[in-house]
């Protein structure tokens, strides 16, 4: 049996598609547009799959492929949806009698903003002719936002019809999941320790970075620039169990602890069920806290055993958010030195075939991007990975309109059997994945400026 789904993508659809493909490598891609990705699977998606996707707004189950859309198509989809709900609720499979329904229509792929409204009104009249009361949920555009769908309970109690126009074909179905916008907002703005100076990585972007690695959740994940702990919190929520965070700033480490303790009481069910609010904070920290290290990136190999980490995910220092064009050469030179050292250490810590997903700064002035010179930053055993629809630099750009300091996202892989500059070629050995975090307890003791333009 085959299952067809449409993923409604966020504001950075290229990154969203790459994230989905990384998590569903065996999916058959049927088609894609600037707004959607249409795939076929041999197994049904888990009901909570969308909770682990940072770049997808909705997921729809596709039930029909036709050359036109009419009331009979809407009725067919409605009946199939009702049948699945009855089966899921273990009710008798008798003839379905719909007496009242709230519904909305989102139409993707067409520039005609009135198509959804016109078809919605026609279907409402059709339902009335059959004695079925209905309420049509509308918005200003041709699609309903996840906020509108949630506030009107269209997934749980009504239905949102999804129409995807692709050339002369129409794929139609209904929404089965929407992004939990309230949860993302709380994880971003509701944390007790939110430091604007240490970066403003949104939880959605952190989730996408982690997912782009495609790493199994029983492997070891490291964030060497953990800041206030956004990547660490999202890794915990995604189910990673072996997590290391590091930062040179003790304030950042303390903020991470506060935020992860807060996370445990709001978002981790297992903690809520087994811990009372009256327990001491030390017990709370021990229950969920990843290994945290106060150290600059260049000294991390004093704390973490070489070739022991399976994936490294980070957003490093992006420089001043108020940078001027005159300051750009100096900033590029400074960050080039920082990230050259960063990737050298990362290569030492990664196992063979280990993955890095990272966000580095890119600067936009006068509609032209300036990038860090990646060819001078990477040691020979780290290779940039190809993904669909990347830039010529094998990267993704994450940027808002008119934003000066943007993010350039890379995925890198450590070559198997490659030397990292410390192990000599004659003593080269296979770096096997280890199942435990190897932390060294020893105490910490305390360029090229040419930029690529695209």
Automatic annotation (TrEMBL):
Residues 197-267 form the Ribosomal RNA large subunit methyltransferase K/L-like methyltransferase domain. One of its GO terms (biological process) is tRNA methylation. It comes from the Bacteria. GO terms for molecular function: tRNA (guanine) methyltransferase activity. It holds the Pfam family UPF0020. This is Ribosomal RNA large subunit methyltransferase K/L-like methyltransferase domain-containing protein. It comes from Candidatus Kerfeldbacteria bacterium RIFCSPHIGHO2_02_FULL_42_14.
